[in-house]
TrEMBL record:
EC number: 3.2.1.39
Classification via Pfam families: Glyco_hydro_17, X8
Domain X8: 363-448
Cellular compartments annotated: Cell membrane
Disulfide bond listed as a keyword: yes
Name under which the protein is recorded: glucan endo-1,3-beta-D-glucosidase
Keywords tagged on the record: Cell membrane, Disulfide bond, Glycoprotein, Glycosidase, GPI-anchor, Hydrolase, Lipoprotein, Membrane, Plant defense, Signal
Phylogenetic placement of the source organism: Eukaryota, Viridiplantae, Streptophyta, Embryophyta, Tracheophyta
GO molecular function terms attached to this record: glucan endo-1,3-beta-D-glucosidase activity
Similarity comment: family membership: Belongs to the glycosyl hydrolase 17 family.
PANTHER family: GLUCAN ENDO-1,3-BETA-GLUCOSIDASE BG1-RELATED-RELATED (PTHR32227)
Membrane topology, record value: Lipid-anchor; GPI-anchor
Amino acid sequence: MALMLIMLLLLIFMLPFSISAAEDAFIGVNIGTDLSDMPTPTETVALLKAQSIQHVRLFDADRALLLALANTGIRVTISVPNDQILGIGQSNATAANWVSRNVIAHVPATNITSIAVGSEVLTTLSNAAPILVSAMKFIHSALVAANLDGQIKVSTPHSSSIILDSFPPSQAFFNRTWNPVMVPLLNFLQSTGSYLMFNVYPYYDYQQSNGVIPLDYALFRPLPPNKEAVDSNTLLHYTNVFDAVVDAAYFAMSDLNFTNIPIVVTESGWPSKGDSSESDATIDNANTYNSNLIRHVLNNTGTPKHPGIAVSTFIYELYNEDLRSGEVSEKNWGLFYADGEPVYTLHLAGAGVIFANDTTNQTFCVTKSNADTKMLQAALDWACGPGKVDCSPLLQGQPCYEPDNVVAHAAYAFNAYYQKMAKSPGTCDFKGVAVITTTDPSHGSCVFPGSHGKNRTRINGTSLAPSNSTSSGCLSQHNYNGGYFTNSMILIVLLLSAVVM
């Protein structure tokens, strides 16, 4: 019996290590500062608290912001900027001074939990790559000397572009040019109980795929089984780009014989605005991606390779950074404007307590895309007539007159009726030309009934453009024919579930 126990123990120790599922995943937010009107640290922390954000990543170790974060309990990742890596990587004393100034001076009041040494160093600062691991080790040694290594992990964020042949994920491997760096780097992460920091941007994968990657696959939208991507080597099914890229990183580590290092996604998101070449950088797509990402992460779904294993993720980013150079999209990754107003309202039903701007229960009734314009006109006439909706804001010169077309005017009237009827089931149908949404359709000075009046989401001009056969939606041209719709429309029941756009 004793011999069998010994053999069993030996077998257990000979098995490859596996990644622990000990803790739940979290959602955090990156805080960039390239804003012409950057909020004060106090204002930023107030926004974080109001939105129930408990994890943030800074791209430096800004003293004022670290002081403002003191005694909030918010878990903070600070960063060694790329331009400081050369100095720190060549001097243990320089690293110790950095830790003393930026860490020891702030803990325990400020809850610093990790240090990101640089950002995408291998792909953006190749001359610092040879001393990257040294910089990480020197920072870690200073934490050990201060007895903080148990509380604060050290890692470095990588671009997903360091992985070659990323699909199918099972064939993925790191660019072997960087093996002299990656092998000791992964050894360091494993020996210190840290994690691989990884930046995952399905937006760019989608943009660069030349139509190979479907938009729905990038946005976490549900796919029919025959549209899912299948890894022919493992037969694992992938329903979104995010999981496929994360699993590619797991397989790339396995290629170097590292199987027990967890992954934290340090950047992921979707831009809400782009130039003419970035037609899919829209508010709706940004809302869809980030809402679905948050739900996916907080549900502890894991990935096909590691189901149920936490993939904690930091959204890029808190604010739109108007001073960033490059394409229009570079300035529009934020969840909020500089004044703290949301760029859009996230759809987070069932995703747990995070982001107070989740107004999933704040619903609106708007026109369905591609609805028949004659039916819209008839429904608009009914709402403003027998439906007894106050359509005066649609009159010329009034706040909701523009854009002057039946689609826009019908959206206002449909929503006014829906709100007036206390959002009762069936009151947003109008013979099939209306649909419920959680995106506030208010625009400019036109505030839709039911709105808190703070959402800056604009109505998409394209979707509100009248067809060639549509007459103006101006109120003076409406004929209030009460016979077109009957009260039978209220009997239609809409079953509302968690929104997945």
